[in-house]
Amino acid sequence: MCGRARCTLNPNQVAAACGFTGDGGGRSSVRTVDANRFRPSYNVSPGRYVPVATVRRVSNGENGGNEVEPVVHCMKWGLVPSFTKKNEKPDHYKMFNARSESIKEKASFRRLIPANRCLVAVEGFYEWKKDGSKKQPYYIHFKDDRPLVFAALYDSWSNSDGEVLYTFTILTTRCSTSLEWLHDRMPVVLGSRSCIDLWLDTSNQKFESLLVPYEGLDLVWHPVNSEVGKTSFDGPECIKEIQLKSTASNSISKFFTKKSEGGIKPEKEDSKEADTVKNEKKDKSSDYQSTRVKIEETSESVDAKKKETNDYDHVKKETPPFEPKGFYTSEKEKQCPRVKRDFGEVSDLDILPVKKEKAAKKGDGQVSLLSYFGKK
């Protein structure tokens, strides 16, 4: 949180932003230390020198007491504790921020609270919003462009050559309601002169009420060029507002895949899954072939049986029916097979001539139609 900031303020402007001069402080300037090491930048990162405002007690020879003196000291961003080994290479990215909720618990910060409080004044800071694998930076600042004043702690460390290095860390807290969509942390912004004085008053140890999110509506933001992530990218282009692409167009563009020379490149299937699909297709093909063979065999069997039936019917039709001897009375009846078949179905054919003879003996000798049909 808060790993990049814009600071183009000179030491006098920093002193004025912290209430040391200009607005009733009674001083036209303050003492500065190592001011020549500071280089104004729109993209300050840990390891760079930044003007830091603090108060130090100096002895007063005339009165024999100590006097509080405001100082603007250019220090490196990224705390290096004084107990760090002298031959160790300092890592300024390790502690460039400190969680305000735990500064009384960690030794690196707890011992600095009584006398090493300081202020960091910047025009704005950057924060990145995560969008999947992409990160979009935003520039956060006051609407009227007045400097932001952060609560901070500083320390000094001596290396193996005896050189003393002053470094600082910015305190952070939970994010304000208006910035929750962007990140879950933000710097501790001291938005009034009373808050600044209370933080610098080392005799006051009840400062927890200061370490809260800044909820003022005058804190605004806008998206900026993603090149801000590079420490080499500097200048007014860092804070220039850009237009973001709409979500709808982004989602539509993601819907379509890039085409290769041979067309759309298909997704790679897992080898085991591909083998399973291949085997299933092979089994289906085998089942289809087996079913086809069975259908063909059944068809051939049906055709063979049909052929046998047709041959039988042909033979049956060509075979002359049984003709009882002396049944037909004329050649004309022999030429009518249908009449012959119908008569052949009548049982007890031998009774017909008998009934005919009996009928001739009765009555007028005329044969009637009913005489041909007798009751059994």
UniProtKB/TrEMBL annotation:
Annotated GO biological process: protein-DNA covalent cross-linking repair; proteolysis
Stretch list, region Disordered: 262-334
UniProt keyword Metal-binding present: no
Listed GO MF terms: lyase activity; peptidase activity; single-stranded DNA binding
One Pfam family from the record: SRAP
InterPro entries: SRAP, SRAP-like
Bias (Basic and acidic residues): 262-286, 293-320
Keywords: Covalent protein-DNA linkage, DNA damage, DNA-binding, Hydrolase, Lyase, Protease
Xref: PROSITE patterns: PROKAR_LIPOPROTEIN
Family listed: Belongs to the SOS response-associated peptidase family.
Record protein name field: Embryonic stem cell-specific 5-hydroxymethylcytosine-binding protein
Organism per entry: Rhynchospora breviuscula
